[in-house]
């Protein structure tokens, strides 16, 4: 691989000069490590807490519908008169919960934190290709967060048309209160978010392609970097399409165009719209929406690959197959969007095509799952909290992924489309799995981020409670979905048909509440470890990758001297012929030693 | 206001209490040489917990099937194509559960079996093309089977055969109710567009008053279908997206403003027959037991008790459509040809219904 670029000529002067003030160091920082922490705190911690609180309120409403609830009264104020949740605000909670978790926590939070932290550190670069764009990307994200949260404080409430905001519901203020100012703010926030995401992604792509240290060929990159790199590529391909959908929707809403609207009679009058189609919006939305699943999932899988290999003290099994499957998933992810639209009214022939492409994507996914399992085989497994979350991820990825075989099959989708079966499926396969990826990443790279160790015992407690509750919540949910219970219902009390699902709903909610409380353990561990954690050693997990060769104390430019050169792939764990059970990438090949993975 | 404040304070106190408990737990470990990196003891404990967790996954699976297995709409389909979907579903489920059981076992068992021990070295095993080929090949074959089966089923359902002379029914959705329109004597629906809606003349569906085919159309709020006759539904919506979901018939199609979508099926079981099936009797009995329990609480609070449940097929909205999305339904009655004809004869035609 000759693509490696020698960065030594121009980087030495970057290292030493310019004194940093508080503002340039902590607020308008251009250092990738600081930006990563900013994303972690804003995206994962703050937005995560808000998103999870919303989900708990949704669950309480479903389990104990239309009843007085002190929590609602306290948190929802005027939208829960007498403590009884209003039906409009229920839909708003569902909408904003989805938006926050999918975009703000698991896209910006996950990629923003770990791509920023790890790309320069693991490929051997002083910083991102453009520190300035990186900073702009974070601050745009920050602004979009603010706007999204602000939308809760407008007169008619936040957007409430579901996170997919299908028009005409989202386009017509008379269709529901949330489609007024709340929806405008949602669209503005998302437009800014997309700009932020594109700047970030371009930066990641350019950095990976141009700034790899000497010897770091593409096939010597850790799988984390491969995953972040391909994720960024998918983002650059698909997010602009959502932006165009959002812009066209803004045009329909505010300037009277008819891209998505036609023949509408609402509240006693005929609207002027003619010739548009909501199905067009669905196509545009899901052209991002489905790749988005992999934008969320691939970085988590990348993190898992790294952590499972390190803690198994074994090379990841089938490194090349892993890269190929990431590429295959990335390609297929852009041609499967129609499986969200089997019953949208599009031509049934398209349904056949999308069934075919959708089920194909199960193949690279299966390869990845089997490769993880084989990596564990005959390993020497170090059960650090990060490892537990990685194993947990593989478990939920399998459980959630398998039901995709049902949903991806157009004939079967007819009857489970938009039921709780779907909710259970995607929460397991992308929600819980990606969250586990975030947790695994935080536990694993906390020493790198903060120079201290997190408490492992609390980590174990956190994992086991969360793992049990995650299955407790989502496993039974498949069954009430198969019973035909639609999602996004404020209450099921108008359907005696579903009365026999009510007890299960309560069980699910109890599990959810316990899981919610368990996250306090993580928060405590996280914040107390920042200040009182044990000082981290240089390379706590005895890992081979470059980030552990940098000093524990952060410095601008990452390495005090020259950037280390790389001589081998990142998975030389327990390699025969070496005394230690890991050989860092910076150790030159011994005479006669082979790069066994080829 | 005071209750709000009180609640916030209580929630805060609970949070603080939990925080303190964690802190005690945390502080209690100080003293042990604590590097925060897993040692053999941790590996052993978590290894055993992995096996425990595997047992938990199996148990929750069994419990779900035991207690919730009779909920799913896996049998009792009431349309001609229903059994096809149900058997495809059953086959997919079998595949899924075999793969799930085996892979979860391997994952957790390996995590237990190969838990770390000081001094042991892992096997350097980076690649094996045969293995990769096997677990690429097996999913390919299994999925190919499922895809082909699925596509045949799908095409079967979605292809509407005009030769069968289906009964044409329009399903008309609006926030938040359903209407159905029959073609009348000629079984042809008159032209319609929401621009023709004239509330003063009670033309609520925007049917073209000048269209000859429209005169004998019949508009109703309860869907009646003759058993064993193919029905072709034409869906329209006047405001936002809705979805016409008829779970017992394994049927669903979105209603899209600005276009007409369609779905066809043949109902095979009348409402009366369905009520008499053993499974349905049991389900209704169970639901009524739950409702009686709930009614007891309600009457104690001085509220109206719930009405007992009697089975009916339903058309329900399954696409988020606004505030009352959760209560947008229409009763479907499947009956014999004679009953249907008798019912139809009582309905008013469109021409006569206008003011």
From TrEMBL, chain A:
Keyword Electron transport: yes
Gene3D superfamilies, alphabetized: Cytochrome c oxidase-like, subunit I domain
Location of the protein in the cell: Membrane
Domain of life: Bacteria
Keywords: Electron transport, Heme, Iron, Membrane, Metal-binding, Respiratory chain, Transmembrane, Transmembrane helix, Transport
Keyword Transport: yes
InterPro entries named in the record: Cyt_c_oxase-like_su1_dom (IPR023616), Cyt_c_oxase-like_su1_sf (IPR036927), Cyt_C_Oxase_1 (IPR000883), Cyt_c_Oxase_su1_BS (IPR023615)
Ranges where the Cytochrome oxidase subunit I profile domain occurs: 22-591
Database matches in PANTHER family: CYTOCHROME C OXIDASE SUBUNIT 1
Family note: Belongs to the heme-copper respiratory oxidase family.
Protein known as: Cbb3-type cytochrome c oxidase subunit I
From TrEMBL, chain B:
PROSITE patterns tied to this protein: COX2_CUA, COX2_TM
Membrane association type: Multi-pass membrane protein
EC number of the protein: 7.1.1.9
Localization per record: Cell membrane; Membrane
Reaction equations catalysed: 4 Fe(II)-[cytochrome c] + O2 + 8 H(+)(in) = 4 Fe(III)-[cytochrome c] + 2 H2O + 4 H(+)(out)
Keyword Membrane: yes
Cofactors, names only: Cu cation
Residue ranges occupied by any Cytochrome oxidase subunit II copper A binding domain in the UniProt entry: 164-346
Protein name: Cytochrome c oxidase subunit 2
């Amino acid at each position: 691989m000759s693509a490696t670029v020698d960065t030594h000529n121009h980087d030495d002067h970057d290292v030493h000069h310019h004194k940093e003030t508080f503002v340039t160091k902590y607020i308008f920082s251009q250092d990738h490590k600081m930006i990563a922490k900013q994303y972690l705190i804003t995206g994962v911690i703050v937005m995560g807490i808000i998103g999870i609180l919303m989900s708990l309120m949704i669950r309480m409403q479903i389990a104990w519908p239309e009843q007085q609830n002190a929590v609602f009264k306290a948190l929802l104020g005027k939208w829960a008169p007498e403590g009884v949740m209003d039906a409009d605000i229920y839909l708003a909670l569902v909408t904003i919960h989805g938006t926050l978790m999918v975009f703000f926590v698991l896209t910006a939070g996950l990629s923003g934190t770990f791509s920023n932290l790890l790309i320069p550190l693991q490929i051997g670069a002083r910083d991102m290709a453009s520190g300035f764009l990186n900073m702009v990307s974070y601050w745009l994200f920050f602004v979009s967060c603010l706007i999204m949260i602000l939308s809760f404080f407008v007169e008619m409430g936040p957007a409430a048309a579901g996170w997919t905001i299908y028009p005409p519901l989202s386009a017509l203020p008379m269709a529901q209160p949330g489609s007024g100012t709340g929806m405008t703010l949602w669209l503005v926030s998302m437009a800014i978010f997309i700009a932020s995401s594109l700047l970030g992604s371009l930066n990641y792509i350019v950095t990976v392609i141009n700034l790899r240290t000497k010897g770091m060929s593409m096939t010597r990159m850790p799988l984390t970097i491969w995953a972040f790199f391909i994720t960024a590529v998918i983002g650059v391909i698909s997010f602009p399409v959502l932006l165009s959908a959002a812009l066209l929707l803004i045009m329909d809403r505010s300037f009277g165009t008819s891209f998505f609207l036609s023949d509408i009679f609402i509240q006693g009058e005929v609207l002027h719209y003619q010739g548009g189609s909501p199905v067009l919006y669905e196509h545009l939305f899901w052209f991002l929406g489905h790749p988005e699943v992999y934008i969320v999932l691939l970085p988590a899988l990348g993190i898992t690959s790294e952590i499972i290999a390190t803690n198994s003290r074994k090379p990841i099994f089938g490194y090349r197959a892993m890269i190929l499957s990431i590429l295959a998933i990335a390609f297929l992810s852009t041609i499967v969007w129609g499986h969200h639209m089997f019953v949208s009214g599009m031509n049934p022939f398209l349904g056949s095509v999308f069934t075919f492409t959708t089920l194909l994507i199960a193949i690279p996914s299966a390869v990845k799952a089997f490769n993880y399992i084989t990596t564990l085989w005959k390993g020497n497994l170090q059960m650090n909290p990060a490892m537990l979350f990685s194993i947990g991820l593989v478990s939920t990825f399998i459980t959630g992924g398998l039901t995709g075989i049902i949903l991806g099959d157009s004939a079967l989708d007819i009857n489970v489309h938009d039921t709780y079966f779907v909710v259970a499926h995607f929460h397991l396969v992308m929600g819980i799995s990606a969250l586990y990826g975030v947790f695994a990443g935080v536990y694993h790279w906390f020493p790198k981020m903060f120079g201290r160790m997190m408490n492992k015992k609390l980590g174990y407690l956190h994992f086991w409670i969360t793992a049990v509750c995650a299955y407790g919540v989502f496993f039974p949910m498949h069954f009430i979905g198969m019973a035909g219970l639609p999602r996004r219902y404020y209450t099921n009390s108008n359907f005696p048909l579903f009365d026999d699902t009510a007890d299960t709903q309560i069980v699910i909610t109890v599990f959810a509440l316990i899981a919610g409380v368990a996250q306090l353990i993580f928060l405590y561990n996280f914040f107390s470890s920042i200040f009182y954690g044990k000082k981290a050693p240089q390379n706590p997990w005895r890992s081979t990758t470059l980030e552990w060769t940098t000093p524990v104390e952060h410095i601008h430019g990452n390495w005090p001297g020259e950037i280390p050169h790389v001589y081998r792939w990142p998975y030389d764990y327990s390699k025969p012929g070496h005394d230690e059970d890991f050989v860092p990438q910076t150790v030159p090949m011994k005479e006669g030693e082979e790069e066994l993975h080829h | 206001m005071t209750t709000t404040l009180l609640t916030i304070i209580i929630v805060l106190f609970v949070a603080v209490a939990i925080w303190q408990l964690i802190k005690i737990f945390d502080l209690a470990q100080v003293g042990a040489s604590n590097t925060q990196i897993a040692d053999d003891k941790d590996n052993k404990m978590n290894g055993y917990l992995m096996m425990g967790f595997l047992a938990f996954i199996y148990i929750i699976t069994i419990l779900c099937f035991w207690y919730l297995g009779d909920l799913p709409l896996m049998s009792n389909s009431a349309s001609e194509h229903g059994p096809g979907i149900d058997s495809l579903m059953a086959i997919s489920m079998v595949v899924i559960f075999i793969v799930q059981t085996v892979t979860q076992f391997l994952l957790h068992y390996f995590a237990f079996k190969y838990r770390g021990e000081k001094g042991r070295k892992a096997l350097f095993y980076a690649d094996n093309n045969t293995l990769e080929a096997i677990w690429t090949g097996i999913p390919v074959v299994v999925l190919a089977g499922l895809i082909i089966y699925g596509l045949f089923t799908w095409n079967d359902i979605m292809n509407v055969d005009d030769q069968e002379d289906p009964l044409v029914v329009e399903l008309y959705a609006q926030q938040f109710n359903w209407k159905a329109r029959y073609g009348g004597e000629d079984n042809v629906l008159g032209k319609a567009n929401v621009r023709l809606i004239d509330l003063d003349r009670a033309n609520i569906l925007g049917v073209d008053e000048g269209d000859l085919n429209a005169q004998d159309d019949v508009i109703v709020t309860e869907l009646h279908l003759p058993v064993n006759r193919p029905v072709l539904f034409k869906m329209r919506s006047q405001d936002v997206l809705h979805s016409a979901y008829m779970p017992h018939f394994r049927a669903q199609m979105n209603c899209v403003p600005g276009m007409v979508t369609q779905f066809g099926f043949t109902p095979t079981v009348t409402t009366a027959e369905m009520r008499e099936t053993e499974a349905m009797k049991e389900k209704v009995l169970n639901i009524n037991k739950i409702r009686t329990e709930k009614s007891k609480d309600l009457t104690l609070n001085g509220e109206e008790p719930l009405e007992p449940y009697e089975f009916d097929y339903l058309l329900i909205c399954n696409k988020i459509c606004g505030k009352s999305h959760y209560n947008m339904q229409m009763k479907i009655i499947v009956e014999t040809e004679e009953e249907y004809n008798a019912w139809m004869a009582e309905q008013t035609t469109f021409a006569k219904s206008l003011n």
